[in-house]
């Protein structure tokens, strides 16, 4: 079944937005109202929002920013190994990367574990994650810069490095509706 974009009047969007806040911590600023709500409660921004520069590291400790992935659509998942919902959704993120990952799309699973990359490597090995690269945010700067109050939180970032939308909480990332949402973002098709 193809997921359709839901356009909602502003008043109803505010109610939907309020319900999303009640479901868990959110980083959405006061006055921000989603243009629509996509699959599994994914909040879609119109227009897309600019993001601050975000520094993190790869598994070898090499510094990176989101600009290093310029021209790709990014699904940026902020997670931690100690977070039960994060652990549950990781296989679906791995599956999504296996399906769509390449020159046009990448899932960046950015761990905010203070224990470092070793706990991420151990987790990937224990759970059989094979398609996701290992990234670590060595401090809490990633969450504070992005206004994230809880994990997991996932941002969809367009080819130009702007946030298209976000989801607070776990999701089934390899569901047909989510794959369709990512494919439309890769193709640059409006929701």
Spatial gap, N to C terminus: 16 Å
Average pLDDT score: 84
SSE string, helices as H and strands as E? HEEEEEHEHEHEEH
* CATH topology name: Glutaredoxin
What is the spatial order of strands in the main beta sheet?
1-2-9-8-5-6-7-3-4
* Helix/strand class: alpha+beta
Helix content: 25-40%
Largest sheet: 9 strands, mixed
CATH architecture: 3-Layer(aba) Sandwich
Shape: globular
Q: How much beta, percentage-wise?
A: 15-25%
Task: Report the radius of gyration as a whole number of Å.
Answer: 16 Å
**Structural domains: how many:** 1
CATH class: Alpha Beta
* Low-pLDDT residue spans: 1-31
How many β strands by DSSP? 9
Helical run tally: 5
* CATH-assigned homologous superfamily: Glutaredoxin
Give structural notes.
The chain is α+β, with helices and mostly antiparallel strands and 191 residues long. It has one domain (10-187): Glutaredoxin, CATH 3.40.30.10. The protein is built from 5 helices and 9 strands, in the order αβββββαβαβαββα. It has helices at 10-23, 84-100, 117-127, 141-145, 176-187, and strands spanning 36-37, 43-49, 55-58, 63-65, 73-79, 105-111, 135-136, 153-157, 163-168. The chain is globular and about 40 Å long. The relative contact order is 0.23. The model is unreliable at 1-31 (pLDDT under 50).
């Amino acid at each position: 079944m193809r997921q359709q974009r839901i356009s909602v009047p502003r008043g109803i969007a505010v109610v939907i937005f309020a319900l999303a806040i009640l479901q868990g911590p959110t980083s959405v600023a006061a006055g921000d109202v989603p243009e629509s709500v996509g699959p599994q409660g994914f909040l879609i921004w119109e227009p897309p929002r600019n993001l601050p520069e975000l520094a993190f590291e790869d598994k070898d400790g090499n510094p990176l920013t989101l600009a290093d992935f310029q021209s790709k659509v990014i699904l940026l998942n902020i997670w931690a190994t100690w977070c039960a919902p994060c652990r549950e959704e990781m296989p679906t993120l791995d599956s999504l990367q296996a399906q769509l990952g390449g020159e046009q799309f990448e899932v960046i699973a950015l761990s905010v574990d203070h224990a470092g990359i070793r706990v991420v490597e151990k987790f990937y090995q224990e759970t059989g994650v094979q398609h996701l690269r290992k990234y670590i945010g060595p401090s809490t700067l990633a969450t504070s810069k992005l206004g994230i109050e809880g994990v997991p939180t996932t941002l969809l970032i367009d080819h130009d490095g702007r946030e298209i939308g976000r989801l607070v909480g776990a999701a089934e990332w390899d569901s047909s509706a989510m794959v369709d949402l990512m494919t439309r973002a890769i193709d640059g098709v409006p929701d």
